[in-house]
Amino acid sequence: GALLVSERIDREELCGALSPCSLSFEIVVENPLELYSGAVEIQDINDNDPVFPSSQARLEISESVAAGARFPLESAQDPDVGVNSLQTYQLSANPHFALDVQTRVDGSKYAELVLEKELDREEQRELHLVLTALDGGSPPRSAHVQIHIDVVDANDNAPVFNQSAYKASVRENTPSGTLVARISAYDLDDGPNGDIVYSFSSHTPAKVRELFALDSATGELRVKGQLDYEETKLYEIYLQAKDKGAVPGMAHCKVLVEVVDVNDNAPEVTVTSVYSPVPEDAAPGTVVALLSVTDLDSHDNGLILVQVSDVNDNAPKSSQDSYDVYVLENNVPGIPILNVSATDPDLGRNAHLSYTLLQGDPTVGHIFSINRENGTLYLLSSLDHEYQVEFSMMVQVQDSGSPPLATNVSVSVFVTDLNDNAPTVLYPHPNTTATYTDVVAPGTPAGHMITKVVAVDADAGYNAWISYTLLQATDPSLFSVGLHSGEIFTARQLREDEAPQHTLVILLKDHGEPMLSASATVSISVAEMVKEVFTDLTDVAPANDPRRHVTFYLILAVILVSAAFFITMLSVGIFKCYKWRQSKELFNSSRSTLYRTPGPFHHIDAVRGGFTPPNFYHQVYLTTDSRQSDLLCKKPFTSSPLGSRQSTMRNGEPGLYHQIVGTASRLPTPAE
């Protein structure tokens, strides 16, 4: 008697929306035979989702609709019943609409959109909302529909001009069709409500409409008639823009058109008064007629101009009186290094300038060239700072007037040094086969200077600053080199067991960029006696030296010249002694008679005359009837006339004897 389910039961298929859903059946029982009636109620489960008729819904709502307007939405269907059926709707968040869920008589639910905030198409053309339907199952099932709302435009915006006033200028006699101005307005509305038509305002004079034309679609204002500055100088044109709505919006603007004068009127000469006939005896300056000249044009177009022809009265003027140009050496030939600029306030050919390089120095013309038209100075060859540091030249700027006028501009070109020369070793000479050996004795203390490497650098400045370092040595601990002097010192005291021969390689570097270098080799012998060095040198010298005879002859010549000089000096000394003895004998034989006769002499005392200080006192002895005399000088002053005269003769130096023009013709002889 068990009642079994023979197949899957679908309540929605059996009963649809009917609730409750029950199935009736009858049971026959035999022995005894009986008939029973029964019913099975099919209970609903939440096995169906709500379903919208379509996945999208589209609405068109005018922006002029007032708040509170309601818009019904399509309902969703759920075949389940009871709490499993559709229970409510939900709307996505938005600033304009709310959702109102209503219940029908049969208990079904439906939703309506309620406008809470008015729409503005100019702010937002369309809205996108999502409507969700939910049943009462656990968990609830749902369905979604996209709602697309198009905001329909209303003519709620008037046209607006980009600017309230436009300004334009046009020349008189401008041909018809010439564009004067382009006005522009915009309307935020859409469709016909935003289409703009341009036109003249109602109070625009008819004369303006005859002279100007306005394109109603583009807003272009063009010349239509003949403009005349002498008639009207300024036009004030009022225009309007109107949309095509049912109740059209309107905007206004004005265009100020200034007519520019053109020299289209010839001067008119009017004779206002005539004095005729003129008497033959009329005085100069008598007024014959009064002339009046008028021109209807304005400003410069109305003046009578007097043309002043130019005279070449201005010499060219350079922006600078002199130029200093710095050029790196080893330059590429043909490069421009300077542009000499000058101006001339004259006109035409009087202001046409030409540039010439004056050939003061012949080498300048081979190295430099100047463009006659623009004054660009070119370098024709490569420069060498070590050959020449500076070039001076004169550039002549001349106009084309008659006669021409010219101005000279001095140009100095300085050659800037590059580090293109390596240091050159002067000692020891690197290109000779002779060996330079310096000798140092054993026991020499530390710090003793042995020799010095001498070098030069043809560059200048920092590029010629040479530093010396010890690159290689037989014993690196024994010697050191001065960094900037090149002097070679002993780094420690030399011992008796030091190696007899030492070879040093000195590296010489300049401080240029890039750095250049050279090397020098120095040989040093550690020996007690010079003989040992000579023995070592004989061992290392080549067997057959073609220059050893030349050295011998040079030494012999030095010895002979020295001997001849000594003999000559000895002979001169003997001769001087002989002359001195002869003069002494002459003095001894004549001094008694010379100083015993005081009559013909006068003594002049310069000290007593107040002309010289006592330290420089001299005595001068002159005869009364002579025209020449000898000036004799003495060192100390003595009171005795004889003593002073003797001291004068004995102490007078040869360099202090002078002849002066006086009253004596000769000195007195010893007999006189």
Automatic annotation (TrEMBL):
Main location: membrane
Domain Cadherin: 53-161, 162-269, 319-425, 432-544
Transmembrane segments: 552-575
InterPro entries per record: Cadherin-like_dom, Cadherin-like_sf, Cadherin_C, Cadherin_CS, Cadherin_N, Protocadherin/Cadherin-CA
SUPFAM superfamilies: Cadherin-like
MF (Gene Ontology): calcium ion binding
UniProt keyword annotations, A-Z: Calcium, Cell adhesion, Cell membrane, Glycoprotein, Membrane, Repeat, Signal, Transmembrane, Transmembrane helix
Protein name: Protocadherin gamma-C3
